[in-house]
Write a structure and sequence with these properties.
The chain has 172 residues and is α+β, with helices and mostly antiparallel strands. It has five helices and seven strands. It is globular.
């Protein structure tokens, strides 16, 4: 697979907003209250919020390209940008999404390998992520690639309190 990666910059803001919204809507709209979901999308994937995330020196977005076609993206958080803080050194994989037309082609697996490579280079103990407990397909995907459930935390879509499994991949 000829997958390549590019770190997103401020000039990529519009593209990042578009792919972020599109992939999240495809993945989760059908499973959520329409009002809560719309509010979440508008609050999370707006210009100000995405721009702020792009400018955060502890967060990095990566675009994934298959033969020069944008097929997905992921976001890595270090330090205080992580949504949870652990005693051990860690990096958070906050988002990893593949466009619908490219799912089932191992793009997500290659993106996850890239994220673990980045974490290895940063010499942390583990890479972790949160995944909705109801997203059984994603949980199995991460488990197949070596991630283990170690905790949980709440995640809100609007006023709807959902629960995410926290999963980690040990690098040492």
């Amino acid at each position: 697979m000829n997958l390549s990666f590019k770190i997103c910059a401020l000039k990529d803001l519009d593209t990042l907003m578009k792919i972020s919204r599109e992939t999240f809507i495809v993945a989760f709209e059908k499973d959520n209250n329409p009002d809560d979901f719309l509010n979440y999308i508008n609050d999370t994937f707006n210009v100000e919020n995405i721009k702020s995330e792009l400018l955060n020196s502890n967060s990095t977005f990566y675009f994934a390209y298959l033969d020069e076609v944008l097929v997905g993206y992921f976001k890595i958080n270090i330090g205080e940008a992580q949504n949870e803080q652990f005693d051990e050194s860690s990096i958070e994989l906050e988002r990893i999404y593949v466009l619908e037309d490219f799912q089932g082609q191992k793009v997500g697996e290659h993106m996850l390998i890239k994220a673990t490579d980045i974490a290895t280079l940063k010499e942390v103990d583990f890479l972790w992520l949160g995944v909705w407990q109801e997203n059984v397909h994603a949980v199995r995907f991460y488990e197949k690639l070596g991630f283990k459930i170690f905790d949980k935390h709440p995640y809100y879509i609007g006023t709807d309190k959902q629960m995410d499994w926290l999963m980690k991949y040990y690098l040492i």
